[in-house]
UniProtKB/TrEMBL annotation:
Biased composition range(s): Acidic residues: 230-249
Keyword Transport: no
SMART domains linked to this entry: BAH
Biological process per Gene Ontology, one example term: DNA replication initiation
Biased composition (Polar residues): 199-217
BAH domain ranges (all copies): 49-165
SUPFAM superfamilies: BAH domain (SSF82061), P-loop containing nucleoside triphosphate hydrolases (SSF52540)
Tagged with keyword Nucleus: yes
Entry's family note: Belongs to the ORC1 family.
Protein name: Origin recognition complex subunit 1
Disordered: annotated segments: 186-292
Length: 763
């Protein structure tokens, strides 16, 4: 041990190197480079606690009641000679998500090493703990309260676990190369996560079928063994205690014989060659490919042309190996990592473990779908509500629960398909999507409609129930309405076993748009989703914040007052959860920018940054004063009237696209019913001019045109809105039948026009 040095409350010293630089081989020198931080040992003056790389410690951080356990990777000197510890965190068994790992048997004293690297000050260390292998823990005659064991790794969220590993091998790899250890632990949990997500039900029931899939997940674990094997072989001549790698290999691959271990060799990786993609083979299902062809030939009396994807060259560049989380493997600022984690959880596409504040709607949907599947009868459910209030998410959660029951054998086998009408080139293509799910074959919409009608009439014992979610039903409404008629009529067939979940934005769409024969087939099973209240929006945001990693919670906190402020603002307008999340996410971005500009130079500051009401208010102002809102506010009165008429027509018809002639008629109705003096224009000759005549009929003299809006250029106003991206219009010759729709957010245009004194009375 080299000379001892003093710090405030601590004594530090440098451990003597176990190998001299003169005797070190070139191969060893490359691996040992940069390991100076592993040679520091510190000792606390008040109780004699000694810490060095490879020790496990119990940590008590501020504002966190429970203690945490970490593995010291290295000891470093920070600014002003402050010693800081670089650690890997452990997850306790209570922090593992049992909903995903229900098949794992966990013990109270079991720890799971994670790839999350962090830097903590030494003053948060409480005491040393003893982490060992599971075998060593079981051999203890008296279980100490500070004794734990580790036999698996997990990701930082505690959702995905690795295959069994040896903790002795982990420590040996840490001594060899800490950076490699962090990367390999991350790869082990990532590969096992991919294996769990890609494993089919057949593989789960047949262990031999999934054996090949597990080989990839073991590669990272074998690297741990190979690295430690090199360490042991190279230290034979220095009387260093060896680790029994044969026994650890048995822990990695229990009940299997492991192949002879070789030294790890690095090979240069070559980029993947770009090749022509092969035609996609038709998927096989229970009906079978041949049986589907015979069924179609029976319906038509001849063979039908089956579409298949042509070979298309891949234009993307070769894929590069990426890490699951860049912050996991590097020494990034922990506060910046916390901001990224917070923004990720507040994103509208973040995966949730549960769906809060929609329990009643979930129960109603679940019972209806479950009864129809068990009874094998067809039915229609009409689900309505404004955008952003959880309609599609609730249905997907219900079907995910039904899939779990199907795998357990508690409900009959069924198929599920989602059809988004906005993604269809033509509403008739919904036939092709549904028939492709049933048969696995792609045919034209006209043929698919015939096959579907014959299929749902057929009484076949092998036919499975099929659940179809038709999202954005408003966009499927055509003049003839034959597509919606068929989708609502097929469930009435005795042998159809078709369950249709129709999702739309307005509750009275069937009465206003659909004919009587269609609305009668839709039935009375209707579920109305209402907008979220401010309490529910606060609960949704809190639920997402609870998913943040515990290390991030120590760095960034959104104050409860800020959450309540954002929830009340959104609930007073629309109750849209997506908008509330977007405001909070933007507030976090504003707070992150403020943090970066006010940083005092200490990149690993232990101070907690708070997202407050001013950050939320600034985010709301940005959303209301966006470039789109500013452009709409600067439009002429005639252009604003066109937008008001379009919004009102969308509300009346329940359709996103409406003919231009209907919008013109809506403008006439608005102006003739208006009685406000602000809607009268002052002229130089005749006193007052009727705005309806001025805007729509164009009967104005040249003198009157000086103070009036040039409505004779109505076509120019429409094209101006289209060219600036506010409207979308169908390119056909007939202007009155040209379909027009908004190309921007409806809520944003609505809120801007409601703040305008000239046209707010129309809305």
């Amino acid at each position: 041990m080299l000379p001892i040095n003093k710090l405030k409350g601590w004594t530090y010293s440098f451990l003597e190197s176990e190998d001299n630089g003169d005797n070190e081989s070139p191969r060893r020198s490359g691996r040992r480079r940069g390991a100076v931080s592993n040679k520091i040992m510190i000792k606390r003056d008040k109780d004699g606690l000694e810490l060095k790389a490879g020790d496990s410690i119990e940590v008590q951080q501020q504002k966190i009641s429970d203690t945490q356990i970490a593995l010291i990777i290295s000891i470093e000197f920070g600014i002003s000679s402050v010693v800081k510890l670089e650690v890997l965190w452990f997850n306790r068994s209570s922090e593992i998500d049992l909903t995903i790992n229900s098949d794992r048997s966990l013990e109270e004293k079991e720890l799971f090493i994670t790839p999350f690297k962090d830097i903590i000050p030494v003053d948060v260390v409480k005491e040393n703990v003893n982490v060992m292998t599971h075998e060593a823990y079981m051999e203890l005659s008296k279980k100490e309260h500070r004794a734990y064991f580790c036999r698996m790794a997990s990701d930082e969220d505690g959702q995905h676990l690795s295959q069994p590993l040896s903790y002795d091998v982990v420590l040996a790899t840490l001594k060899q190369d800490p950076k490699t250890l962090v990367e390999l632990i991350g790869d082990m949990t990532e590969e096992n996560d991919k294996k769990q997500r890609t494993e089919t039900p057949t593989q789960k029931r047949n262990p031999e079928a999934s054996e090949s899939a597990s080989q990839k997940a073991r590669q990272s674990e074998k690297k741990l063994i190979n690295i430690s094997s090199e360490e042991s072989d190279s230290e034979d001549d220095r009387d260093v205690e060896e680790i029994d790698l044969d026994s650890s290999d048995e822990e990695f691959h229990s009940a299997q014989t492991s192949p002879k271990k070789r030294r790890a060799t690095s090979k240069p990786t070559t980029p993947r060659k770009t090749s022509l993609r092969k035609p996609r083979a038709p998927p096989q299902n229970d009906r079978g490919f041949q049986e589907s062809e015979e069924f179609m030939k029976k319906v038509l009396g001849r063979k039908v042309m089956i579409y298949n994807s042509l070979p298309v060259p891949t234009l993307s560049s070769p894929k590069k190996r990426t890490k699951k989380n860049d912050s996991t493997y590097g020494n990034l600022d922990t506060s910046s990592t916390a901001f990224k984690d917070l923004k990720k959880k507040l994103h509208t596409s973040a995966k949730l473990s549960s769906l809060p504040c929609r329990e009643d709607e979930f129960t109603t949907l679940y019972l209806n779908v479950e009864n129809s599947i068990k009874e094998q009868t067809g039915c229609c459910l009409y689900i309505s509500g404004t955008p952003g209030i959880g309609k599609t998410a609730t249905i997907q959660e219900v079907m995910s629960s039904m899939e779990d029951l199907k795998e357990k054998g508690e409900v009959n086998d069924f198929d599920y398909v989602e059809i988004n009408a906005l993604k269809l080139i033509n509403p008739n293509y919904a036939y092709s999507v549904l028939w492709s799910k049933i048969s696995g074959l792609d045919v034209s919409p006209s043929y698919a409609a015939l096959f579907l009608d014959a299929y749902f009439k057929e009484d076949s014992p092998s036919k499975k129930p099929i659940v179809v979610m038709v999202d954005e039903l408003d966009s499927m409404a055509t003049k003839k309405q034959n597509v919606m008629y068929n989708f609502f009529n097929w469930p009435t067939y005795p042998n159809s076993k078709l369950i249709v979940l129709a999702v739309a934005n307005t509750m009275d769409l069937p009465e206003r748009v659909l004919t009587n024969k269609i609305s009668s087939r839709l039935g009375m099973r209707r579920i109305q989703f209402i907008g979220y209240t401010f309490e529910q929006l606060g609960c949704i945001i809190d639920h997402r914040l609870s998913m943040i990693q515990r290390q991030s919670k120590q760095k960034v906190i959104i104050e409860s007052d800020a959450i309540n402020f954002a929830s009340r603002k959104v609930a007073s307008v629309s109750g849209d959860a997506r908008r509330a999340l977007q405001i909070c996410r933007r507030a976090v971005e504003i707070a992150e920018l403020e943090y970066q500009t006010s940083a005092n130079g200490d990149e690993h500051s232990s101070d907690v940054f708070h997202v407050k009401i001013p950050h939320i208010a600034k985010a709301i102002n940005e959303s209301t004063n966006s470039p789109i809102a500013q452009y709409v506010a600067s439009l002429s009165m005639a252009s604003k009237l066109i937008l008001c008429a379009l919004l009102l027509r969308q509300r009346r018809s329940g359709l996103a696209e409406n003919p231009l002639g209907d919008i013109i008629d809506e403008i006439k109705i608005l102006l003739r019913m208006a009685s406000s003096k602000s809607l009268r224009l002052s002229g130089t000759i005749s006193g007052h001019i009727d705005v309806a005549e001025a805007l729509l009929d164009g009967r104005m003299t040249n003198d009157q045109a000086k103070t009036s809006i040039r409505i004779e250029n109505f076509k120019f106003l429409i094209f101006e809105l289209i060219e600036n991206g506010i409207l979308n219009a169908q390119d056909i010759k007939s202007e009155r039948y040209r379909l027009v729709s908004l190309n921007v957010s409806q809520d944003e245009v609505m809120s801007t026009l409601k703040r305008d004194d000239q046209v707010s009375g129309f809305l």
